């Protein structure tokens, strides 16, 4: 199940102050996929997760961690997968 995998991986990281790990929010907000969620709900969940991330004291640590781990999916550090991919591409050294 994506959410439990994500959450167990996330809890291993243990970002101090992580709002998504408080138990106050449904992990699906961060982990739902287009394959398992109707499009409207998928979009609203992702927007909600990003809004929570932007209030999270761990956002910088989380974003840096997620940028270093391209295998991660879902919302991390307030960014969607495609946003992290784009940022990784922009900050990678030109070869
Ligand atoms: S920035 Fe978002 S995904 Fe990262 S720890 Fe905070 S709430 Fe969780």
Write the layout of secondary structure elements.
Blueprint: H1 2-13, H2 28-31, H3 39-53, H4 59-68, H5 81-91
The protein binds iron/sulfur cluster.
Iron/sulfur cluster binds next to α3 and α4.
Give a brief description.
This protein has five helices and no strands. With 95 residues, the protein is an all-alpha fold.
Describe the structure.
- With 95 residues, this protein is mostly helical.
- The protein is built from five helices and no strands.
- The model has no long low-confidence stretch (mean pLDDT 87).
- The chain has helices spanning 2-13, 28-31, 39-53, 59-68, 81-91.
- Bound molecules: iron/sulfur cluster.
- Iron/sulfur cluster is lined by residues 15, 18-20, 30, 52-53, 56, 58-59, 62, 75-78.
Total beta strand runs: 0
One letter per element, helices H and strands E, the order comes to HHHHH
The helical percent reads: 40-55%
- The amount of beta strand, in percent, is under 5%
**Main sheet record:** none
Ranges where pLDDT stays below 50 over 5 or more residues in a row are: none
State the separation between the terminal residues, measured CA to CA.
Answer: 38 Å
Using the CA coordinates, give the radius of gyration.
Answer: 13 Å
Count up the domains: 1
What would the average pLDDT be, to the nearest integer? 87
């Amino acid at each position: 199940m994506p959410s439990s995998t994500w959450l167990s991986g996330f809890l291993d990281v243990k970002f101090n102050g992580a709002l998504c790990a408080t138990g106050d929010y449904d992990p699906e907000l961060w982990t739902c996929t287009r394959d398992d969620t109707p499009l409207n709900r998928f979009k609203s969940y992702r927007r909600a997760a990003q809004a929570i991330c932007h209030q999270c004291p761990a956002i910088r640590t989380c974003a840096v961690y997620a940028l270093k781990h391209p295998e991660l999916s879902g919302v991390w550090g307030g960014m969607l997968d495609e946003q992290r991919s784009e940022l990784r591409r922009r900050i990678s050294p030109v070869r």
